[in-house]
Specification:
The structure is a single chain. The chain has 139 residues and is an all-alpha fold. Helices cover 73% and strands 0% of the residues.
């Protein structure tokens, strides 16, 4: 079971189609949400429990998002690490307002980049042929 979880959610090799991307993103969001909810329920008894559970949820979400984004980029025949770089850049721009950039402009620009990436990864079909990252997962 752990090998399957690692292959499905933490691997950076190969390609995945849109529906798999959506399913795995939703599963990751549910697991992370449950961990955060458990942390909030534990908060009156232990601040440490909230911190630990929220940190685990963040790590799960970040690793899953990175893995799924890289493989969706590879499904389009593009370098997945470039896609991950765009994702990190969008987050850095959005949070740049907290560190001296114009907050409104940084948030809008970061949000626009994130929205474009969301549409590209979630709605644009990958290449229909075998590419350097593997065969068409829908074939």
């Amino acid at each position: 079971m752990l090998a399957r979880l690692r292959r499905d959610y933490l691997s950076f090799a190969g390609r995945i189609p849109r529906l798999v991307y959506w399913r795995r993103s939703l599963a990751s969001a549910i697991v992370s949400g449950l961990l955060v909810a458990a942390g909030w329920l534990a908060q009156p008894y232990s601040q440490t429990a909230l911190l630990i559970l929220a940190s685990i949820a963040f790590v799960i979400s970040a690793l899953t998002l990175a893995s799924l984004s890289v493989r969706r980029f590879q499904d389009h025949g593009r370098n997945g690490w470039l896609g991950l770089g765009v994702l990190v850049a969008a987050a850095a721009i959005a949070y740049g307002g907290d560190f001296g950039l114009a907050p409104t402009y940084a948030a809008v620009l970061g949000g626009a980049v994130s929205l474009a990436l969301f549409v590209y990864l979630g709605f644009v079909r990958g290449s229909r042929r075998t590419n350097r990252y593997g065969p068409d997962p829908l074939a």
